[in-house]
Design brief:
The chain is α/β, with parallel strands linked by helices and 619 residues long. The protein has 2 domains: 3-199, no CATH class; 209-613, 3-Layer(aba) Sandwich (Alkaline Phosphatase, subunit A), CATH 3.40.720. Helices cover 45% and strands 11% of the residues. It contains 24 helices and 18 strands. The longest helix has 26 residues, at 66-91.
Length: 619
Amino acid sequence: MSLSTTSKRMFSAKPFILFSIILLVKSYLAWLVIFGNVLNWKMLTTEMPFIWIVFCLIEWFATKRKLAIYLWVNLLITALFFAALMYYKYYGVIVTYHALDQVNQVTAVSNSVFSLMDPYYLFIFTDILVIGYVLLRGKKMPNWKSLSAKKENRSIILAFFVFSIVVCSFNIWPNRASMNEIKKAEDMGILNYELYTIFAKDKSELIDMKDITQGAIEQLKGNKIVDNPEYFGAAKGKNVIIIQLESFQNFLINLSLDGKEVTPVMNQLVKDNLYFPNFYQQVGQGNTSDAEFIVNTSLYIPPNGAASGEYAKKALPSLPKLMKQQGYDTATFHTNVVEFWNRGELYKALGFDKYYDKSFFGDEDTVFFGASDDVLYKKTATELERMQQTGVPFYSHIISMTAHHPFTIPEDKYRMTLPDRYEGTFVGDYIRSQNYADYELGLFIEDLKNKGIWQNSLVVIYGDHLGLPIYSLDNDDKKLMAEIYGREYGYSDMINIPLIFAYEGIKEPAVFEQIGGQVDLLPTIANLSGVSMDHQLHFGQDLFNQSYNILPQRYYLPSGSFVSQKTLFMPGSGFEDGTQYSLAGEEVNDLGVTEAEYTRALRLLNLSDSFVKQLPDHE
């Protein structure tokens, strides 16, 4: 027998070596997608020691079923790497065990999940198919099983085990305090990071309720007391209608492709009303449901999980409850089932009088997982007319949905012809779906006007969250976004959504350049409605009467990120190695962000978390 043949046999007989090589290749694929590292040997010292610890345990304890255990471990780690890269493509963060709460949502958004998958991702499962075939068909498998069942030298395995434990410890321990989850996962290794998140305790301490006051919040936010606020009571006594537009980003406003307006209805609303172009999302894992929570509470989302899951049992101070105190009826409209994202419990916590879901809107003209915006708006307008006829003012929150990721709406809903360079692209599909959403919004507004509702209402329109994550775009999409912006598409562009206030009696349309976030909507609506916020804790501010703002961000951006004045700040391990981006999208060396602002942003989040956790449960 030749030396090469003997070497091949020895190699094939040692699953420790074979599966180490297999998982090294899979680690490389995950790192390539998540960290963008084409060749980085750091993963050898981060991912492989964790894998070797598991393999050493197999070698130490397994005998008869050793090969089967290797195969199962390979499958589990493969699934974890695959979940990590797919989750990153959607959220831009590293998946953790907290995402298990979302498992029941995955089937509902399966189109979105599959749309993010590049074909080469499937290579991560190639070895499983090959080995599975060999196991079923291979004639020499009994021989391989018997050879691989042999125990390795225990002294060598013990030495390798201890070495791997030491290396993993050195990867995890020094990087525990890092704020940026992506950097933390890169420095620790993805597998070490997953283990760390399971056992790491929340280091933030609950702040005593007596220390959580509106004065403390205003001081952290740098707000000034205004004796005679502008726009106070400008829409007093009017109905309040909030329209939450699915995935609608601000760059769509006044966008034309080859001379054709994409969102003519929104463009006209901007011209005729009060418009805030520097307005930013603050949602997290719950996406649309998080936007519903923030807008209706003026509280920040939880550090992990969706607000509709984490906070739904609490007796939340809210806009519906505030308006009910003023004699308003309250209702919310969404075409999906109310169980999706635990909305039924969330609506109880928020205090809505009534919700309308799929049981009301039916299966007519279904797109993705609910009735289309056409059905939503027509049936909602009819119900709002009925509510207005009672003579009691109402507050209604309307959630649009057709322009939902992955934005592949049916052809019968196309309202525009895309330029050839946009056809078949993610960006093109997004723009076409938003053009449809804009068209249906226009019909809804005309319907409200014809029914006499628009003239007697304060209408608030905003986007719920981003539609085009930077990390989901391929090269062609990035080129199209650069064409639209006239520069590279940036992180601050990604989270920028529009905000419009419309009501009869606006003295003069205006564009307000100050920054704002979804947390600011409740106090701003209260100001326009002439309702005092003196007895309701809130973390937002009235956008018409404050010039400075600080907007803590979570989930889509690393922990510790915030928007302030002209800057988006994203931390590294901490403040010192953080990155500043102008709100125009460019990375810059210094835009005047201070460590004090960074500390204040974190303190605001801690205050909000502490406040909600100590609230009593609702009945």
